[in-house]
Fold each of these.
Amino acid sequence: MKLQLLEVFFYPPMAIARVGGSNNPLESFTWQEDPTLRGAAKTIISPAISLEIQADGSARPYLPSIIHFKDEGLFRPVAPFFELWARVQADDGAQSEVPLTGEILQQLDASLAAVSYLVEAANLKAARRTGDPTCGFSARLEIRASDNHRHALLATSPRGAGSEPLVFPDRPIPLGTIQAIRPVSIEEMGVNLDVLRLRFTPASGHIYGPPIATTGPAPGTGKIHEIVPAVNRILNQNSTWLTYDADFNRFNNPEPFDTYDGASVTIPVSSDRSWGVVDDTCDGTIRAIVTIGGERFTTTARFFSAPPDFAPDRRPFLSLADDLTDRDLPLPGVDDALTTQEIADLFQRVFETLSLLNLDANRAWAINDNSSSSLPGKSLNLPYIDRDTMTERDRPYADKVPDLISKPVAHDRLPYSSVAAAVHGSLTDVEALTDFLRTFGVRVEQLLRPPYGAVSELSQPPAPDPNPRFRDARIERDRLHDMRMPPYMRDSDATALSLTRRQYQQIMELVDRLRAPETTALARSAVASTAPAITPVRQHVERVLARRAQPQPE
């Protein structure tokens, strides 16, 4: 059957890599609920089919028995694969989306010679802060689909008038490697090995600096430590990056502005002058070029290189996936069962996030961060923003929290963290969560910090007081931290974090539906006349009881 190529695209179109010093990439795993009774709906990781690259550049699928995150103390890097897909049309006019394989290329009267890739990776963080392109460093590489060797992405800085490059051409910074996988016309373990794939392997997670980046004091403690290992002191000490000091009169600083080596917020020992340090994380693009029948088809995928995930078995309540969902998916109807499922999953993720959070430390940090504001500790009907936050004075928001922490046990050094875990633990069960939302709807509305409003919702000039349903970043009080959920957590711009608009609206609409008199009566009738809801906890109990009821081998 002869095919016509209409379009090419990558799957996935975007992936996150994670740096690591081990030579062995991290194997694949998925999230699942703990199947044991003791697990009580906690998330665990489960090994998934992984691909091992062979010496000839082909891939071999296998299922690991256990997931290793380190080798001899070094993190295994997360090295994502990208598959090249195509939209094709058959002789009868039918269109379909299929992985681009060697077999499909033959049906298109083409071969691997028709496919090539252009890969670009860059670290522009220092250039962003200084406004000087010579402080960034990037790599560019072109490879054919038939070239199955690993190629290093060696980054250097551009030259510019009046400034010197940060990274010298003869001393580049490795940002990782790229490899086109050799397609093999077989299928193993459900994996089609004939698909055209690339793999990006990130760098090792090293830091680099100029020769003067030897030792320096740690912010907050003043303890002297080595800034950059001697072997990595290869950068140009005459670069503009070493003159950066986050002076708002000279630089257009990002927020938070103090996240660079050399910033000294609490101890003025370095005048906030940058030590000239950079790391080997990066952002990048992979562009595929497919030329068939004199026509050129292109597509682009994106990758991001990040630090290791310090808690891979804990799901964050707010992620890139939530942001994309907030942007692209319509809000389910309030009567849609999907709404309850999504909210129940959200509260489970909130509990998992709390297991990683020192709420006491976050509260102290937020109080200090708010101290630069000229606003009073208490304004309007909003929670306190000073040392009275989440205390007995912070009613009705704090409610039972002061009672729970007023007499902490002797060994409880983190009373706020303990209270948060106790309160949210019960809300991981969908029955308890639904009952809480129905009974305490007004309190839920008080406790949830609203998201920032859409541009169409904002007034010009800004309203004098905060809106109870959305925030305006131009209003100072809307940017400050208080005990509303999620409490004392930083957003990407250093202001108070909130749920996404979709998450917030889903909760508010479900609360409104649950506390409506007719809905409450109907719900009570349904509870009395139907089987109990299948909650995660109940599922665990039933699975464990079912296993115990099975005959045991003698």
Amino acid sequence: MTATPAADVDVAVVGAGPTGLLLAGDLAAAGLSVALLERRPRTAANLTRAFAVHARTLELLDARGLAAELVATGTAVRRIGLGGGLSVDLDALAPRTRFPFVLVTPQYETERLLERRALSTGVDFRYDTELLGLRQDTGDAVELAVRGPDGHTRNLTARHLVGADGHRSTVRRSLGLPFPGRAAIRSVVLADVRLDDPPADVLAFTGNGRCFAFLVPFGDGWHRAIAWDRDHQPPDDTPVELGELRAIMLDALGTDHGMREVRWISRFHSDERQVPRYRVGRAFLAGDAAHVHTPAGGQGMNTGMQDAANLSWKLAAALTGRAPDPEALLDSYDRERHPVGHMVLRSSGALIRMIVAGSPAVRAARTLGGVAFATVPALRDRATGLITGIGIAYAAPPGSRRPAGRRAPDVATADGGRLYELLRAGTFVLLAPAGANGPATAAAGPATAAAGPAAAAAAEVPYLRRGHWRDPRRTTHALIRPDGYVAWSAEDPSPADLTRALATWLGGPAGGRAG
């Protein structure tokens, strides 16, 4: 699809990190014209701070045919050391997801695959291009002032704009949105190092009140090291030497694990901030442009990519005329994702404060919490579900019943396939028992999803609760959104009920409000 005469492109995405790359690729795959603006030159490497890819993000990449290739680039970590001899076994996630582990791989590997996909779908990459400002008083488009590689300023118009341009977001500032919050931790040392004697726990961190240290392998001989010293917190631009990192490791861990070589090393601070809303008119914010938080839990990049997956199909549906109520659907992005960002901010902040705690009482509480996390199944399942993303759910749409709003696990279909393979088409998927009332293909009729015809599959559809399949008698039919969440479900619906549900979400004569 091409842009309207009033706009140069359908969507302008600012920022070519993982969030912007996933979003742009999805939109172009849906037939939209997309310009991806990135201020870095094409040859400049992006700083690799993120290294953890959680289960829910891997599921979203699986729905784009990328998960297996990404997994091959890194290390699947199935146990996390909590210190004090405690650890968490992530294999307990196996009944809930195909990816019961944390994938440790450099951020550039994730970006490489997403960039390749975006290029293949026709995204117009504009590197060395800086957004200078924007205005939204031009009717059906957003007008952007951009400076290109030649240093000249030009205007670019887009039907919608998405700011995925990081914590210093020009889009956010141009929209006049505040970014309230505070600094959570300062002068954290970050490095990639080689070790002669790697730790036994694949993911291991330890804190003693004065400092903490964290080591994780990339699988290629390099380890990511993160360290902090309460008594030495110089400004972020103060040079860091390998000796400083070794000293903190020795204090926190009792050993530097034979640290002998550094690939790069830097110092940073971490804020806790969130914008009050993710949408202003035709402009949206996603990823670090909308929320930043501490690195505890490794959720930053994951949360941003999940923002992108939530927004992309909604923008595609609205811009291609396939949404019964486009404005309500677009508004649902903020309604669903803002609470998730707030939850991640609070949980990661609480975790980092426990890690750096100097008070003996707080450190004792941390130890007790670690024991409870490792040994109480309900608490462990809840916490790991939120950190990995597979336990995150949205509010059920008005008039619907659970499991609407919950993540759909990768159910097997009667033809030997999987739900997330079907989601690779970017469509809604209707799951129903073989031979059920109102076969999916007949009930759907001419209705279409965000990026094409709705897919239908025969499958047993058990009840969804917190990511598990439970009580198969309660749900026989489920309509799955393109982002892998349940839009609607029912037990033995009549053909009229099924047609009404499809029309509500996909458009048609019986349509209504969706989102």
Amino acid sequence: MKNKIHNANNNAKSSTDKGITNPLEHSNLVLLFLNSADHSAIIKDTSFRYVAVNKAFLEQVGLKNDDQIIGKTIYEVFTNTTLKEELDKINKYDQIALGLPKGENISIEFSIPNLDGDERIYSSKRFAIYDEQDQVIGIGSLSINITERKIAERELAKVRKELKEQIAVQEQTLHKANKTLQFMSHLFENTLDGVIITDADGIAQQINPAFTEITGYTLDDIEGQNPRVLKSDNHNKKFYEEMWASLTKTGKWNGELWNRRKNGEIYPQRLSITAIYDSNNRVTHYLGINNDISEIKRKDDKINFYAYHDALTNLPNRRLFSDRLRTEINRCQRRNCQIALLYIDFDDFKKVNDSLGYHVGDELLKRFSVRIKEVIHETDLFARIGSDEFAIAVIDFGNVNSLMVFARKIRNILQKPFRIEGHDIFITISIGIATYPDDSETAETLLQHADTAMHQMKGESGVGSEVRFYTSQMLVRAQNKIDMESAIRRGLASNEFIPFYQAKVDSETGKVVGMEALARWVKPNGDIVPPGDFIEFAELLNLIGDIDSQIMEISIKDMATFKNAGYDDLIVSVNVSSKELEDPLFSNKVIKTLDKYKLNNNQLEIEITESLIMKNVEEKIKLLETLSATGIRISIDDFGTGYSSLSYLKKLPINTLKIDRSFVNDILSDPNDMAIVSAIISMAGKMGLNVIAEGVEHAEQIELLKIEGCTIIQGFYYSKPLPKEEFLTFLREHN
């Protein structure tokens, strides 16, 4: 195509020389025209190489002459100045233009930087160029710089976008404001707090329905009025001066005050006042929010009341009683008077709750307090200080006799039963008494001493029989009890309770057939505490079951040791307590322990005292039958000392009767004891039971027992109770 253009230019020159008009002269004019235009014009061949460009194009792309571009592609010319994506775009549209029919064009916008590197945006029309034979010989392009227009369009678009965003924000703000206004209006109308709005001078302008409900005033009543119409006159002038001083200084005030309703009723309210300011920081309105706290006050009063009173009887509780007792003691110190403190405790109150229900027990406590109020003076103090424990402080009593008369009066009012839900309930009480200043000069100690006396009465005299006055010896016993409880619990934790074994010997063969495991308390220093020094305390503290459980475990373990030493035909007898027998898991625990040490069940004999087995005898029979069914042997200890029924005796699954030492001791000298022992042996034989005599110390006793048919002997004659290792030595010597 380039050759054709050059040939056309040469022919034009030749024709001109001859003075002949040539059509290519017209082409020259076209080139001059294009070079004069501010549009860029280019021609590319079918390989998309530049063939011709006009002056405007060269200036726009920063080239000095067309030699720098003719015969080259856009990639060769603009790769270092233009993004490849833009060049690919131009090349794509060049290819499209090459295939266009004659007379059609395609539009394109593209950017090419100028000589300074600034972006220039062009709008271009591209079209195919055909020769006389309608053959495509290249493409042409006419482009115009639209950079300024595009910048203007962009700015306009940006302005439009910002304007649109501003409108959206304003619409959103307006929407939120409208929702907030609706919400605030709803809140104003429906809040449970009373709201009043006044102007800067305190003149009411608006109230909400809750304000009317609380005060009784409607908007018609109060609009244009000062809220001082609500004043109750419960507060002095200084109160309101301080309120307004706070409002002036900080713009707010809140607190409690008493106001008057429209009906004249005075009520407590919580009030919060806030100043509202304009843009110039001037007060325009005041907002008052108040709520009626009458119910809260009532609840607070109730809470305060029950912090110092018993909720069931409304009597003073221990805290208030102690405070008042301290006050009376201080007063008596000045007046030289006496105070007697009576500590009262129900006997077996638990039985009422267990058998009739707690609601009946509660009603009994309330009615008891009513009866007591009938016999005390207004100056006396009366309180409920525990579940079923009460205290009375008699102020300035005359003498001990007068206290006894007063205590008897209390007992007399309890002679009549309490009729509750169809039940006639009789109660007895235990009363302990301590006096000021003889027994103590402090309220706390006086209570403690009266409590100690009451418990001493329960422990020694039986319930409901008399009153007990505190003595210093009681304190010693109480402290001993506390010390002993701590020591026993430590001993249990340290496994200090171990079995000593006393042999059971067949008097005919001299062979040891078994032994009784007797609890001994061996201290870490080796001292042995006799059973008489701790058994009673353990029973009183309800710890005897724990001791017996520990003895049971160790005894079965020791039996395994004896068995491994070759003594596999022994039977060990272990005492059990009431606590263990009442445990529904007791039999399972025993069997698991036997299995643990691989001991035969029939090598364990459980000893139960006669008095224990006669309590809840039907339940005991079921438990003993369960144990007996597994092969465990059952023995009744101390037989003949209790109140056993022979009809029950024949039902019990027992193997052995043990004659108590109290009968054995005097069989050599007392015919009656001998007769009883003989009868027990005879009865046991006829019932197919084994019989053992305990406490045997003399050979003559053994001979008598053998004659009667009792050959198994336990007592000091053969051996005292021995620790495991010594008992093992004893076995080796006798078996």
